Amino acid sequence: MELAPHKVETSFCSDMATVGARGIGIGVNKLHPHNSSKPTSRFLGKRLRIKSTSESQRSARITSSNPKTLLVFAAGGELINAAHDLFVGVGVGLPCTVMECGDIIYRSTLPKSNGLTLTTPGAVLALGALSYLWATPGVAPGFFDMFILAFVERLFRPTYRKDDFVLGKKLGEGAFGVVYRVSLAKKPSSKKDGDLVLKKATEYGAVEIWMNERVRRACANSCADFLYGFLETSPKKGAEYWLLWRFEGEATLSDLMLSKEFPYNVETMITGKVQDSPKGLERENRIIQTIMRQLLFALDGLHSTGIVHRDIKPQNIIFSEGSRTFKIIDLGAAADLRVGINYIPKEFLLDPRYAAPEQYIMSTQTPSAPSAPVATALSPVLWQMNLPDRFDIYSAGLIFLQMAFPALRTDSGLIQFNRQLKRCDYDLDAWRKSVEPRASLELRRGFELLDLDGGIGWELLTSMVRYKARQRTSAKAALAHPYFDREGLLVLSFMQKLRLQFFRATQQDYGEAAKWIIQLMAKSGTKKEGGFTEAQLQDLREIQPKGKKKASPQRNALASALRLQRKVIRTLNESMDELNQRRKSLWWSRWIPERNEVRKYIYTSFFFSFLFFFYV
Ligand SMILES: Nc1ncnc2c1ncn2[C@@H]1O[C@H](COP(=O)(O)OP(=O)(O)OP(=O)(O)O)[C@@H](O)[C@H]1O
């Protein structure tokens, strides 16, 4: 039957919409007129209606007589459509579940789609994308931090110049800089500014400024209060980075631990007065708990924002007299895994006394950080693959040990302990078995302290000091450990016990668990029951298929999965290496202000122009 052209509005349904079944594939490759077997050319000159958000895409006149043109035209529209659907969680599903194709003839009588049909796969995809963007180290918060917060902060914070300071006592001198206690030449309000600390640093100063600024915006309480950092160039000394902090206090944890009064001296500092309750293990345990909680809290702050310190040791933990808490200092060796700054997998700047056995925070198979956008996009994957934060956890575990065992507080004591632990394959339980029988009184006292409350302190310690980074607890999980519940293990509530069980479960080596499951399946396995036969188990153990063994579905699936995994890793490595070969500059050091004030005005005008254009 022929219809009058003005009445006919033809509808097409594309084969694309099997996206729901296929994941995110955009399979636009052919059009077919729904409910019709008539050739495509039959619809020439009619209106082609495709699902789209803009009116121009919604409707267009077909002018070509070539069916290929028709297909390309529709495919383009569908491509835009699919991209739109992917991000708003709309329209992903089987063809007729997401679009109203209707009748070929009376299409115009159909109700207009409102364009927002939420489907389950679409919502899952959108949620997945959001979780990825917010997963540690946080791509989305990083974007906000770098392009908005950093700019705004720069406009409003006070700036300093070389001539503003009067140098005082030298506080320390390391390989990369000298630290002084300083005061302001003109003290506008002496109470507010108080005493300051100034570090004149060499090339690593740039990194330290970046890290301190990141920390100040993301977790200010974790580290010493950073005020300002700038580049000072003089013909005599060349380029020098000047970093300024508020003076936090006289003592580091190292100074306090070396005192015979430890840990009671810390208690006095935290509470602000001398306690007169009887000395003993219980009280010492409580003080050590408090120090560990503060240290883990500071580490959790750093790790949540994607920063790994890499030089955690008592010398870099300062007691802040203002807040009466311990804070971390010296971020010169830190790595920002969010954008890949200072992350060089095969290079390390570590203190061997406190370094984890892996020595590198990332696998040496992982290539150096590529350009910032690529590093940022991949950062959640790399973080999960390497768990670089566990490097700091190992160092924190050693500090815990030093607090419990006075003999390990000296350099020689710690070096000797490290040797013993290495001989025991980094197994703290094995070390304990080897030293406990002939332990001195002091050593035995340390074990007693950790064994309080059913050995919950020892349990936390062994979950921090482990050979495999993946088996070490994170700072967040450690903070949730019942060791930090004041009442101890015996009076744990049902929920706390459940939490402890969960914590223990997360500490398992899942490589072993996988083997165990395979064996269990094999034991229960006959073909009838669906388990593995011995021959299949052998194949699984060997993983790599050998020779011309007869293929089984399980073996093939496993082999394909392994091949795919290897291919993905190889491709990732190759592409990142390629990117690295391009000359990299310290692009981010552009953020560091130079002495003159001109930059500030440039930034200010840039920011306000941006706001103005945005408004317009
Ligand atoms: N904010 C601060 N408040 C008080 N004292 C500080 C502060 N920052 C640093 N110090 C003191 O300065 C000393 C050296 O600081 P820092 O470790 O950052 O310098 P460094 O040059 O990296 O030294 P090293 O190489 O020995 O680690 C610290 O041990 C501490 O005593």
UniProtKB/TrEMBL annotation:
Keyword terms, alphabetized: ATP-binding, Chloroplast, Kinase, Nucleotide-binding, Plastid, Serine/threonine-protein kinase, Thylakoid, Transferase, Transit peptide
SUPFAM superfamilies named among the record's database cross-references: Protein kinase-like (PK-like)
UniProt superkingdom: Eukaryota
Pfam families: Pkinase
Residues annotated as domain Protein kinase: 165-484
Cellular component aspect of the GO annotation: chloroplast thylakoid
Reactions the enzyme catalyzes: L-seryl-[protein] + ATP = O-phospho-L-seryl-[protein] + ADP + H(+); L-threonyl-[protein] + ATP = O-phospho-L-threonyl-[protein] + ADP + H(+)
Biological processes per GO annotation: regulation of photosynthesis, light reaction
InterPro entries hit by this protein: Kinase-like_dom_sf (IPR011009), Prot_kinase_dom (IPR000719), Protein_kinase_ATP_BS (IPR017441), Ser/Thr_kinase_AS (IPR008271)
CDD domains: STKc_SNT7_plant
Gene Ontology molecular function terms on file: ATP binding; protein serine/threonine kinase activity
Enzyme Commission number(s) of this protein: 2.7.11.1
Protein name: non-specific serine/threonine protein kinase
Organism listed in the record: Quercus suber (Cork oak)
Gene name tied to this protein: STN7
